[in-house]
Amino acid sequence: MPSGPPKHEMAYFPNMTAALPSKSGEFRRVLWTGLYSQVVLMTVPVGGDIGDEVHTVDQALTFTSGIGKATIAGKDQDVKAGDLMVVPAGTQHQFVNTGPTPLVWFPSSFCYAIQLRPFPDTYK
User: Nearest 5°: phi and psi at 19?
Assistant: First the structure.
């Protein structure tokens, strides 16, 4: 495991959603770690779940394989490969694999981890 702060280098993941495996032997695999954010590959086996969680950062979750049920702040939402879900900081969340294959996603917290621009912000 690397020690010290991360290098000031680009982290490039070509063809990210197509190149990720549809399953992994690891529940959580860290792909990249920065000073204030991390990119992780999550794999929940058939019938499995992540357990109730709360984080101190916003998360953007991109689902790449499988189907499941997300429960965010008590509200259920079906999720599948190709979906993007945002879990606000401090919000209870749980993900359950309801399908016949592993449920895989990568959460990230660096989609403007701090609000840099006023909302709404659009470029034309």
Answer: -85, -20
Q: Which of 66, 54, 64, 72 is nearest to 105 (CA)?
A: 64
Is there a domain that residue 9 lies in?
A: no
Sign of CA dihedral 31, 50, 113, 119: positive
- The tens digit of pLDDT for each residue in 57-92 reads 888 898 988 999 999 999 999 999 999 999 998 999
Q: 0.85 cut: is pTM over it?
A: no
Each residue of 22-32: pLDDT tens digit? 556 778 888 88
CATH number, domain of 90, equals 2.60.120.10
C-alpha angle with apex 16: 10 to 22, nearest 5 degrees?
A: 140
Can you read off the two tokens belonging to residue 69?
């049920």
